[in-house]
């Protein structure tokens, strides 16, 4: 079995501006706006999937920050994908202070009361074969028999001509698990005085149990997540939450998709406003084109450290990589970055095709982009301050 973590935050079309950000108050909670922006721009032709609350969660105290029921969006698979499941864990950063967590209770990141009742399934969640990952025409006039497999669909034009294309995930059971616990589906505690419930671990277990009752127990493609002992035996549990301390020892085949200059990490980890009182990084954080040569050099160092961290991991034939030199933050859920005419590419290969090639063992995928600014296919995030 292969494991591929689907992080869910948004990469936007190059040259589009994200309005409404007050830069000085930017933190983990406000950064979830990246996802809201993407959802507000969906077109009428996209599949809209309703929110399902988990009815048995309350009895297990598996609740959001404000005590409301957690939920997910599920679109059923069919045909050859009927027993394959893709679980997408919604992102949105952590609330890292009591004030932050109390505020989050009034948003979709802390309460199902404020969650969208219907969301668009695009990118890796799309139900269209031509979008997930794409329809790649191939002609074979010599093929005398049709072969059905989970990686192909086909239709006949005449008895001697077969046209078929790659169709990897569109007919799987696809789930988006909503994120409302403030700590990435971990933790089990509460703050009674502020009426905060930190029940991420219970939410995770409750959601998995509910999905198993709906058929996931028969999944042919599935995984189980836990904190590995090979890490906790020599590091504290907090350190074992971070991938650089884990990936070298993970035995399950793993695919890493990440931007070399991750916008969320730049905003919240490398140069947060709290660590930059003089505002030296202000313009660079909003727009990479305004970074000074020294700042770009610093970001190149960040990229190099990440590549060094995955060097041992990438040597394994079972693992896959797609690290492009974009100022983005995950690129799976939006159709324009997952698979479209102008999607980001490395070596002419879009993200969706790279993931499918790796998962279905069509070819090895070790795609690492050249350093910024060589890649002109990126959909870079650019921010501007609210007026």
From TrEMBL:
- What are the UniProt keywords, alphabetically? Cell wall, Cell wall biogenesis/degradation, Hydrolase, Secreted, Signal
InterPro entries per the UniProt record, alphabetical: PAE/NOTUM
Q: What top-level class of enzyme does the UniProt entry assign?
A: hydrolase
Gene Ontology CC terms: plant-type cell wall
Q: Which positions carry the signal peptide feature in this UniProt record?
A: 1-20
The Gene Ontology biological process terms listed for this entry are:
cell wall organization
Tell me the compartments it is located in.
Answer: Secreted, Cell wall
| PANTHER family for the chain | NOTUM-RELATED (PTHR21562), PECTIN ACETYLESTERASE 12 (PTHR21562:SF5)
- Name of the protein: Pectin acetylesterase
User: What is the protein's species of origin?
Assistant: Prunus yedoensis var. nudiflora
């Amino acid at each position: 079995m292969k494991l591929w973590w689907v992080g869910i935050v948004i990469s936007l079309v190059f040259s589009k501006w994200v309005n409404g950000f007050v830069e000085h108050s930017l933190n983990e909670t406000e950064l979830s706006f990246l996802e809201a922006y993407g959802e507000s721009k969906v077109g009428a032709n996209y599949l809209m999937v309703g929110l399902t609350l988990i009815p048995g969660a309350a009895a297990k105290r598996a609740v959001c920050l404000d005590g409301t029921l957690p939920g997910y969006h599920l679109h059923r698979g069919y045909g050859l994908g009927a027993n394959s499941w893709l679980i997408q864990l919604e992102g949105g950063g952590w609330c890292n202070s009591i004030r932050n967590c109390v505020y989050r209770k009034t948003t979709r990141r802390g309460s199902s009361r404020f969650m969208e009742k219907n969301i668009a399934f695009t990118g890796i969640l799309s139900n269209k074969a031509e979008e997930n990952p794409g329809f790649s025409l191939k002609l074979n006039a010599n093929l005398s028999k049709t072969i059905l497999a989970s990686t192909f669909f086909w239709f006949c034009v005449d008895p001697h001509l077969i046209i078929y294309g790659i169709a990897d995930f569109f007919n799987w059971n696809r789930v988006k698990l909503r994120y409302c616990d403030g700590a990435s589906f971990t933790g089990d505690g509460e703050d009674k005085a502020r009426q905060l419930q930190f029940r991420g671990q219970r939410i995770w277990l409750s959601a998995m149990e509910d999905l198993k009752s709906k058929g996931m127990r028969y999944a042919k493609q599935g995984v189980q997540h836990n904190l590995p002992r090979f890490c906790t035996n020599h590091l504290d549990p907090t350190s074992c939450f971070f991938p650089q301390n884990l990936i070298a020892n993970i035995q399950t085949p793993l695919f890493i998709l990440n931007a070399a200059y991750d916008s969320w990490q730049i905003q919240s980890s490398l140069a947060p406003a709290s660590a930059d009182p003089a505002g030296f990084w202000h313009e660079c954080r909003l727009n990479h084109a305004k970074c000074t040569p020294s700042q770009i050099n610093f970001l190149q160092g960040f990229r190099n450290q990440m590549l060094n961290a995955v060097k041992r991991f990438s040597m394994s034939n079972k693992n896959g990589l797609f690290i492009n030199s974009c100022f983005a933050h995950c690129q799976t859920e939006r159709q324009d970055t997952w698979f479209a005419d102008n999607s980001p590419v490395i070596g002419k290969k879009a993200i969706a095709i790279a993931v499918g090639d790796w998962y279905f063992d069509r070819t090895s995928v070790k795609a690492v982009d050249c350093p910024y600014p060589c890649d002109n296919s990126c959909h870079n995030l650019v921010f501007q301050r609210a007026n």
